[in-house]
Amino acid sequence: MSVKDAYEERVHARIEPLYESMEHHEAHLESTESTSMESHLEALRQLKKKRHHVDGLVKELKEASEHGWQHIRDGIDTAIEELKHAVDAARAKLHGEK
Fold first, then answer.
1. How far apart are CA 71 and CA 96, in angstroms?
2. pTM of whole model > 0.85?
3. Is the Cβ–Cβ distance between 22 and 83 less than 8 Å?
4. 39-75, pLDDT tens digit by residue?
5. What is the mean pLDDT of the chain?
6. Residue 96's CB: how many other CB atoms inside 10 A?
7. Sequential DSSP letters for 33-74
8. What pLDDT shows up at residue 52?
9. Domain regions of the chain by residue span
10. Are 29 and 37 contacting, i.e. CB atoms less than 8 angstroms apart?
11. CA nearest neighbour of 30 among 40, 20, 45
C-alpha cells in the first residue's frame, strides 16, 4: 500500500464518524421541537458547508498523483479538525451542554 493510499484510509476513518454524527444531529433536529431551532439549523448549515469543503479536498486527494498529493495534506488535516470542532460544538449545543 502506498503512503497516499494509507493516508486516504486514515482520512476516511477520521471523517466517517463526523459525518455519522452530523446525520444524527440532523435527524434529532427533525424530530424535536426547540425554541432555538433557527440557531440549530444555522449550525447544521455551517456543518454542511464544512463537510462540502472536506469532500472537495478528499476528491482532490483521490485525483492527485502519487507524487503530487502531499500539498493537499495540510489543507485536509486543517479542514477535518475544523469540522470536528464544529461537530463537537453542535453536539454540545444540541444537548444543552453550552
1. 39
2. no
3. no
4. 778 888 899 999 999 999 999 999 998 888 888 998 9
5. 87
6. 7
7. --TTHHHHHHHHHHHHHHHHHHHHHHHHHHHS-TTT-HHHHH
8. 96
9. 3-94
10. yes
11. 40
